Records
---
Amino acid sequence: MSKCLSEERQRDSGFRSPDSGCRIPAAKRPYTLAAARIIAFICLALLIPLFTPSPSPADVFVYDAVAVSGEDVRLKAETRGTVFIRGGELVEFFVDDVSLGKNLSGGDGAAYRFYRTSRPGLKDVRAVSRNSIGRGTLLVVKPGSGVVAVDVEGTLLQGGFMNPGRPGSLQAIEGVSKRHPLIYLQTGDTNVKAVRSWLAENEYTAAPLLPWDGGAVFNDLAKKGLKIRAVIGGPGVIESAFKHKSQAFSFEPVKGAARLKNWKELEEKLK
């Protein structure tokens, strides 16, 4: 047996002297084309889950609303993933635990269901998608009712959302809500969900929380035939309600508004 042949066999067995001086042909690759395709397929299968949205339950958010007794009000819920809106989710609506049926959320994540209102009062609206539940509030009022609107960030907050509300505000809001339909207004940069959580954590009276939207909320209520009985808020909110001829109250100096010293004063003025 030649020296080089011996070296070739040593190479195939994994051993070879580096000083032999023999030119030995490169070993044939052990992988065939079919094997390479199988490996590529396995790698792709492992990578796909990293870039595919998880099938975890969608978060559900229910928007609050105000309606007149006897009105067909459109309820709205939104399905959201961990980061992005999730459309195509089946959502079942409930009002006071009575099912209204199911609808698919659209590409924007929004799902709608109409509800015919009856007796005035607060209604618990619930939306269920997969294993997630969202809740909101529907306020049903008599035609022509006068609504009291409270600017949360402009009048209830004191030093940010990490702190409780202004002294006396909890009791005053509860007293006002017993005599007049009440709504809260979200006016700042903090989203509706965060403001709603703060109200609940501080045990404020349950009532719809509506986006102020530069005063558009007052126009929407007026279109339903409702009056703006009073507005308690900051300068921008007060000014946006002027044309509705409502009583105006503020803890800041605002033209056309009564300046409040404390919340107990407001409760006395709205008796």
Note: Confidence is low (pLDDT under 50) at residues 7-18, 48-56.
---
Amino acid sequence: MNALLQRLDEMALRLQSDPSALALLALGSVGRDVHRLDEHSDLDFFVITDDKRRLLEDVSWLGGPIEWLHRNTRDGYKALVAGIYHEFAVLTPEELPGIPFAPGRVVWARPAFDVSLLTPAMSPPPSAQWLVDEVLSNLYVGLHRWLRGERLAAMQIVQGEALTNALRIRGGDDPYNSARRAELSNSVEWPELAGGYERTPQAARAIMRLLPTTAAQAMREQVQLLLERSLPACGNSGSTAVHQQVENGQHTSPTGGQDPP
């Protein structure tokens, strides 16, 4: 048996001995998508309990050895246990309806527990038009930041937010992360879409090509104008651009005005 699946089964046995534990739900590649399980997979799961505080304060039910433990949210941890990376939340039955998650696999549940609570109530996805408008707004703001000399911020919004939303238009098999397994699409030039720090305008241009050509013409035209201004300047590094703005007295301060001379 795969080591990760075996560890989940062993965890379920330990939880069974705790009267407050109600269920163990496996997610991701150890959940319903076990066909994707490989050497790069980790353990994602929910523990359902009627004594949340105690199971969060005493995590001996994880087994051991616990080599690293990071309380990254109020509900759970990231952990390294016996060399295996874990990411999990401890939840009460009442909390489940308000938690967004993809469908998982019930590893164990008490006979009296209502396992229908472990079926997520999926929110309807945004419309294609909403996503197109969001992408255009991301590109507009991101290219302005590029032209201001904020190369890192521009990269984050164009190659991060705009690209993420553009991928959501195309669809995928992960409703919460459109970048997962995106490389399975051979029709996309990924190096152009995510070219890195110095290639944000090229990425913006490539993202524009993914959008319908008939939508939001006024905003498309504004983004196109910004692209025409940005692409000739691609040879300048971010630090050079900011330095030139400072020399010309044009560097924008955090309050929106120009820095004093």
Note: The CA atoms of residues 50 and 235 lie 59 Å apart.
